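From the methods appendix. Each design record in this collection lists the tokenized structure first, followed by the designed amino acid sequence. Records were kept in a plain field format so they could be parsed without special tools. The example shown here is representative of the layout used throughout.

RECORD:
FOLD TOKENS (288 positions):
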């Protein structure tokens, strides 16, 4: 995957990112299914190696966030990219509509308690960014029962600031954050919705709520663009991944994760003299 320039998909931190200018189709043509499968298998093996060292090293954690419109490929990306890692070292959370108990806490509460510990990979399928997306577009802020004086014009500005501060806190404590916006066109979403409707094996994935959200396509695109501009930072960058062709987009995601793990300079723990002595004793015992 050396030919994939992951920097080309990184959202700049200057606040001048335009989502409408991003092509959801891969540049330079697509990959054949067999080519993508070979590259994916190679990437899966490398990712499995790195995850094993991450767990043994125990000094770093990795938090992966995926945000997108419906049918952009969040579930399949997690399934394929993480297909070779040890399930004991990866925790995946899908955040649905908050419960009454969650709504009684601060809005970051249900997310912060699921941040991965050191040695683990945590994946958020949707995340605290829903608080500046669906809550904003659907005007659901009233459900959070905030004091009236906090519902002013600065509400969303403060939420972006809180997110940036939260992510800075995590990176200052050894948790690397990778954020992926999976970008598809409205026409491609329509094609995938029709596939869900036309194939009985996919009917279970269809929800009438998806169509209601599709009606707000333009509003969501504006909210996504604002989110990307306000919260893509040096310590926690966003990546805008073209996902009209899933097999290419998944390769980009995989390479970015591999590069992040390699940059941690992970290593297996150095054994103490006592531990080495115990291993020598075990060798002698087994060899008898």
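DESIGN:
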């Amino acid at each position: 995957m050396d030919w994939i320039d992951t920097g080309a998909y990184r959202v700049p931190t200057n606040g001048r990112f335009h989502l409408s200018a991003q092509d959801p189709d891969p540049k330079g043509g697509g990959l054949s299914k067999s080519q993508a499968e070979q590259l994916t298998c190679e990437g899966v093996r490398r990712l499995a190696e790195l995850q094993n060292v991450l767990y043994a090293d125990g000094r770093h954690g990795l938090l992966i966030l995926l945000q997108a419109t419906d049918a952009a490929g969040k579930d399949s990306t997690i399934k394929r990219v993480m297909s070779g890692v040890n399930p004991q070292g990866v925790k995946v959370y899908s955040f649905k509509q908050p419960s009454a108990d969650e709504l009684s806490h601060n809005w970051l509460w249900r997310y912060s308690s699921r941040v991965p510990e050191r040695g683990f990979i945590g994946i958020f399928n949707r995340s605290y960014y829903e608080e500046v997306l669906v809550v904003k577009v659907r005007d659901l802020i009233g459900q959070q029962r905030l004091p009236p004086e906090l519902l002013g014009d600065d509400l969303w500005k403060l939420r972006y600031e809180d997110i940036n501060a939260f992510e800075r806190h995590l990176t200052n404590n050894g948790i690397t954050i990778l954020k992926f916006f999976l970008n598809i066109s409205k026409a491609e979403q329509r094609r995938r919705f029709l596939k869900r409707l036309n194939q009985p094996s996919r009917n279970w994935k269809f929800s009438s709520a998806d169509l209601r959200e599709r009606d707000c396509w333009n509003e969501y695109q504006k909210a996504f663009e604002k989110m990307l501009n306000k919260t893509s930072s040096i310590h926690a960058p966003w990546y805008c991944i073209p996902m009209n062709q899933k097999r290419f987009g998944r390769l980009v995601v995989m390479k970015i994760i591999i590069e992040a793990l390699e940059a941690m300079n992970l290593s297996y723990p150095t054994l103490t003299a006592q531990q080495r002595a115990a291993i020598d004793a075990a060798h002698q015992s087994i060899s008898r």
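APPENDIX NOTE: The CA atoms of residues 62 and 176 lie 5 Å apart.
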